[in-house]
Write a structure and sequence with these properties.
The chain has 198 residues and is mainly alpha-helical. The protein has 11 helices and 2 strands.
Length: 198
């Protein structure tokens, strides 16, 4: 038998990812909006890692969703779309494109912080300078601003992302979150299955 409704405990809602992202934007709105507005101006200005502290996240999905929400909020502020409460909620809904763009921004930021010499070489039009060690060793190239590796799988009937993997540094927090996510996706099956999933 259930007690009467008047004796039920109060329903306490937990903090949603939307509220967490909005709090992240409110912390320093002028800096965040300024940096995010100029983020598409130049490849060297992609500094999402200076806006969002990756060390506060222990889950890749949450990091990408919060990043996507922060970007959407910055775009809304930029375009002066937030004039009614209903408009705010409508524009703060995420889709897969938003999360994929957040992931791409994180990859670019990580690559710029770890492989700036390689990116500078790949962006330079002069072929007279000698390539850096990683460029020669991994056959690096830029694919839509992202550094990818060439390998022996180029003629294999595999998807392009499998044939040409993205280059990430071994000792970066984003790489650790990506490996952890792959390990959980492989149902903690082991190193071989995690590498295959990754």
């Amino acid at each position: 038998m259930y007690p009467p409704e008047s004796e039920w405990p109060e329903n306490r809602t937990t903090q949603s990812e939307d509220e967490l992202a909005l709090k992240e934007v409110v912390k320093s709105p002028s800096t965040a909006v300024h940096l995010l507005v100029s983020i598409s101006a130049n490849m060297s200005e992609k500094k999402i890692d200076q806006i969002i502290d990756i060390n506060r996240f222990h889950d890749l999905t949450k990091l990408l969703r919060v990043t996507a929400l922060v970007i959407k909020a910055a775009e809304s502020f930029k375009n002066s779309v937030i004039n009614k409460e209903g408009t705010r909620r409508e524009h703060m809904r995420l889709n897969s494109t938003d999360v994929n763009e957040a992931e791409r921004l994180w990859i670019l930021a990580v690559q710029w912080s770890a492989f700036s010499k390689e990116i500078t070489f790949l962006l330079s039009k002069e072929c007279s300078c000698t390539p850096t060690t990683y460029v020669a060793q991994f056959g690096l190239f830029l694919d839509e601003e992202v550094i990818k590796c060439k390998g022996r799988l180029n003629n294999a009937p595999l998807p392009v992302n499998t044939k040409n993997p993205i280059l990430l540094p071994a000792k970066h927090e984003f790489t650790c979150l990506l490996i952890k996510h792959s390990h959980e996706s492989a149902k903690h099956s082991g190193i071989r299955d995690t590498l295959t999933t990754l």
